[in-house]
From TrEMBL:
This is Nuclear transport factor 2 family protein. It comes from Nakamurella leprariae. Residues 27-123 form the SnoaL-like domain. Gene3D superfamilies: 3.10.450.50. Coiled coil: none annotated. InterPro entries: NTF2-like_dom_sf (IPR032710), SnoaL-like (IPR037401). Pfam families: SnoaL_2.
Length: 138
């Protein structure tokens, strides 16, 4: 295995996954399919979804489900840049068209630092607009 293989695998995975997420309008099944069973997901800051989840099931229950219950429409990702270093990748993207059931505009800029291995996202440190999340949960 060459030293560039993990980097090209990471870039290919992230590019393909985000393309599918964009094309599907952020379909939950497409999203969940990219997450490893043992993922560690950290939502940074101090919002209703902040914290670290260990495992896909915990992430889906503690972060994804509460968001899904409050969103009329998930924001569609528009990738601004992907940077890769080995099995780590950083994806900066705008989530556009997001709408809360309470009328909140849920469009925002995200930055996810992700470790990819064996064809799945294994770790995420997610940065996002905590104010928008707080408004969604208000």
């Amino acid at each position: 295995m060459s030293s560039t293989e993990p980097e090209s695998d990471t870039r290919a995975f992230l590019t393909g996954w985000f393309r599918r997420l964009t094309e599907s309008g952020f379909d939950g099944a497409v999203f969940a399919a990219g997450l490893a069973d043992d993922i560690v997901w950290t939502a940074t800051g101090h919002s209703p979804i902040s914290g670290t989840c260990h495992g896909r099931a915990e992430y889906l229950e503690r972060i994804y489900r509460p968001l899904a219950e409050r969103l009329e429409r998930w924001p569609r990702p528009e990738v601004l840049r992907i940077m890769v270093d080995g099995d780590w990748g950083l994806v900066e993207f705008s989530g556009v068209g997001g709408l809360g059931r309470n009328g909140t505009d849920y469009s925002m800029r995200y930055c996810w630092l992700m470790r990819v291995a064996d064809g799945a996202v294994r770790e995420v440190i997610g940065y996002y607009d905590q104010g928008k999340v707080a408004e969604l949960f208000a």
